[in-house]
Design brief:
The protein is an alpha/beta fold. The protein is built from twelve helices and 14 strands. About 40% of the residues lie in helices and about 20% in strands. Strands 2-1-3-12-11-4-5-10-8-9 form a ten-stranded mixed beta sheet, with helices on both faces. A two-stranded antiparallel ribbon has the order 6-7.
Length: about 375
């Protein structure tokens, strides 16, 4: 029995999580795997009921389950809430509560979708990258932080806002080990991305990454400044195999990398602690409140997140391959949601895409 916490969240979250649930149930029927799904609220919907975006009940349910599948959080109508009550705070909160310090974001180009990318086919064909992003440090968590009024030279009050980019040796070292082990399981190339020419915190980052590299002599380590990495991801993405970087750089670069594939709706992610605790799986895109209730969102990123769950939390590579190949098969037959549709394709809804993938699994 695999016990999974379903945190549907806001916007398109409920719709895309439903399709991933359907796919897991189809997989269970084929491989004789039993799933128990435990529902909990997170984000704006949690605020509506509990007046907080991450209720204690949700944290308790997550801890009791074997893995967490999350949709997305956020809605424009909550933009005026105090910062601590914004739905996005729930993401930072649950990562901290579950000690989810390592985020894996694979960027794989489906041959069937090369034409969906804004980049030339010869540039992106064959791209296969994993971005290892540190998830619980950096400017998102560094303290002190805040906003205050200071007097300028003429005695007038001027508002200042500040956040601190902070990393400890231990935080860098543990994400480095995850990255090197990930690279060992792939093509044994690791690129560490920082801004060591400007930032003290990046100088420590580079020093610790280099130190840890001595324990992995079979992995080729390179370093790249984040501004150059942003350019190289577009100019020559195939040069990369595994990338390791901090929280804010990883957030930006992984979203940029998603556009190589043609849509944010295609890329999954896994957030883990590597201490035996529950892991969390989610698409990298947002809640897209403008698409809510239209049955038009792309569920593939969430479905592939469920596939990653089978691989990492439940150690079932066969299940991962079945889901991945089902997605690939449906795409090869021309099925497309609105975000990746072009003339000549078969336009399908969110639920129709889920149904097609389930049918592939059940054959």
């Amino acid at each position: 029995m695999h016990k999974i916490a379903l945190l549907r969240g806001d916007g398109i979250g409920p719709e895309i999580v439903e399709e991933a649930k359907k796919v897991l149930e189809a997989l269970g029927a084929v491989l004789d795997i039993r799933f128990e799904f435990c529902e909990a609220l997170i984000g704006g919907c949690a605020y509506e009921k509990y007046k907080k975006p991450l209720p204690d009940e949700t944290i308790e349910i997550a801890h009791r389950c074997d893995a967490v599948l999350l949709g997305a959080v956020g809605d424009w109508k909550y933009d005026t809430l105090p910062n601590e009550l914004r739905p996005e705070k729930a993401l930072l909160g649950i990562r901290k509560e579950l000690n989810l310090f390592a985020n894996l974001r694979p960027v794989v180009i489906f041959d069937e979708l090369i034409s969906s990318s804004a980049l030339k086919p010869q540039i992106i064909k064959g791209t296969d990258i994993v971005i290892v992003r540190e998830l619980t440090g950096d400017v998102y968590f560094g303290t002190p932080k805040g906003m205050e009024v200071r007097l300028d030279s003429e005695g007038r009050g001027v508002r200042y806002a500040y956040n601190n980019m902070i990393y400890s040796e231990k935080e860098i070292e543990r994400i480095a080990h995850v990255a090197f082990k990930t690279a060992q399981s792939r093509r044994k190339k690791l690129c560490s991305v920082d801004k060591a020419n400007v930032l003290d915190v990046s100088q420590l980052w580079r020093e610790i990454i280099t130190y840890v590299s001595k324990q992995y002599p079979d992995v080729e380590l390179s370093h790249m400044y984040v501004d150059n990495a942003a350019m190289q991801l577009i100019a020559n993405p195939k040069q990369f195999d595994t990338i390791v970087t901090g929280n804010i750089f990883g957030d930006i670069l992984s979203d940029e990398a998603s556009m190589i594939s043609g849509s944010l709706g295609l890329l999954p992610s896994a957030s883990m602690s590597y201490d035996g605790s529950v892991a969390l799986y989610e698409p990298i895109h947002g809640s897209a409140p403008d698409l809510r209730g239209q049955n038009a969102a792309n569920p593939i990123a969430t479905i592939l997140s469920a596939a990653m769950m089978m691989k990492y939390s439940f150690k079932n590579n066969e299940a991962y391959e079945i889901i991945f190949n089902a997605v690939k098969g449906v795409l090869s037959e021309g099925y497309r949601t609105k975000d990746i549709f072009k003339e000549g394709d078969k336009l399908v809804s969110t639920s129709q895409m889920g149904d097609a993938i389930c049918e592939k699994i059940s054959r």
